[in-house]
Every structure is written in C-alpha cells, then in structure tokens.
UniProtKB/TrEMBL annotation:
The lineage of its organism: Bacteria, Bacillati, Actinomycetota, Actinomycetes, Jiangellales. The chain crosses the membrane at residues 33-54, 93-117, 129-149, 161-182, 203-225, 266-285. Keywords: Cell membrane, Membrane, Transmembrane, Transmembrane helix, Transport. This is Carbohydrate ABC transporter permease. Its main location: membrane. The keyword Transmembrane applies. InterPro entries: MetI-like (IPR000515), MetI-like_sf (IPR035906). Belongs to the binding-protein-dependent transport system permease family. One of its GO terms (cellular component) is plasma membrane.
Amino acid sequence: MSTVDTSRPSAVRTGDPATLAAFRRRDRTRKTLLYTLLSFGLLVMLAPFLWMGLSAFKTTEDLTASPPVWIPTEWTLAHFRDLLDVLNMPLHFFNSTLVAVFVTLGNLVFCSMLGYALAKLNFFGKGPVFGLVLGALMVPMNLMLIPKFVLMSQFGLLDSYAALILPFAAGAFGVFLMRQFISSVPDELIDAARVDGANEWFIYWRIILPLVKPAMATLAIFTFMGSWNNFLWPLIVTNDPDKYTLPVALATFAIDPTKSEGSNGMLMAGAFLVVLPILLVFIALQRYFTQGIATAGLK
C-alpha cells in the first residue's frame, strides 16, 4: 500500500518543474542560513581557545601588540621554558594525571557494577537504592564539599592523593548512565549465559562490558574531564604544593605577584597544557562518545 508524502506542497508532490525548482532554492537557502549560523556559533565558541593556543607560542611583543595579533609573527617556546623554570610542571602534571586516571577507573568499575545490579538483578531494596541515586543527582556538588572535607579530615587523609581520589571514585551520574544503558541489553543474552552455567561475574565481565563500550567511553570522557578540571576540591584538601594539581598550581602562580607579573605568555602556555590532555582523550574516544550519547537511556 502506497503512502502520500504530505510534508511537501501538492505541486511539489505532483512534480511540477517550476515549483520543484523554487522549492529546492528555498531549501538550499534555509540550509545555507542554518549552516552559516552554526558556523558563526562554532567560531564564537572556539575563538577563546584559539586565542589561548596561539598566544602560548607568541613572543612578548605580539602579546602586547595593539591592535591584537592573532597569528604569531614569530613562533616561540620561550613561555613553556619559562613556565618550567618557575613551576614544577612535570610534578603537577603527574598529580593531575594520577588523580584523573584513578578517578576515571573507579567510576568505570564501580558505576558499571552498580548499574548492572540495578538494571538486571533483583534484590531487596533495589527500588530505594535507585531512588537514592536519582536523589543524589539533584544535590548540588558544592553542598557536599563540607561533609567530604570533614570525612577526609576524620580519616586523616588531608593533603594526600587519597583525599583527591576517594570522594570521586564513584558518582550518581555514572551509575544512572550505566544503569540506563545496560537496561537496553536484551535479557535473553543474560538468561542464555545463566543456562550455560555462567555466574554473575562472568556475565558482567564477558557479556555486559563488551556491549556497553559506548557508555563506558562517554562516562570516561565526562569523568576524566571533570577530574582534570577540578579546582575547588584540590584547593581545599591540599596545602602541600607538591600535591597541587595543574589547575591549582596554575591559579596559585597567577595570583602570586612576585611570579606572575607580566607573565601572560606563561599563563597562556599553562592553560594550553591544561586543555591539551582533555582534547586528546576526546579525540581518542569521540566515536564511542557520540554513540553513547545517542543510545544511552533507550531500551
């Protein structure tokens, strides 16, 4: 049985050449306007990052030029070398990497485990546990800073890597994301594995995880990005400069007038180093990321 496309004018559906040509012109005009607006929005969003990245390689004369110079007249790495002389960048980079990697791994493991339990297992209190997860999503992050700080203080973990990692080793967002994604896995696959004698650990490790790689990549990007950019919590729980992460070290350098005066180039170089790992992680996982965003929550 044939269907009639009612989304186009009747003259277009009947194939009138003049009407078809006019319709195609209007369609091209709409698309051109749409792509122009989107391109303008993309340019506005990227302009600060482009300025930051290019300024990191400019000479001092280009940075202070009026009118501003976008493209460096002479490319230089002097600001990076000066920054390494003033700050222990390898140590701060190591701190940020260590914290971000362990926080990301913790979320991937614990959130996927709880997400599998909430999605596919039946146990007493399953509904209230999921309700607590949803409730935790509504609690502002800053509201939890004081309880977390008191907890870390009572455990004697302040000024340590554990204080930077443990409070963020699992999160409600990750549990919700993994639960919604794992719910889309057919129950027949799990039932067949159980009939074959597979235990829950085998099902989780060999069946569930390979099927939820897009959601894992999505969670990894969000978690790594949030941990890498986290500023307030590391600032609160660390007093030893050797435990500073990159954002904290760069911020303390920026507010120190004895070091940062006239050092816009070094600040741009430091900001470039902070942003670069996030870009690399996103580029590496973008295929899984877009797939995970498109399919998470569907069943």
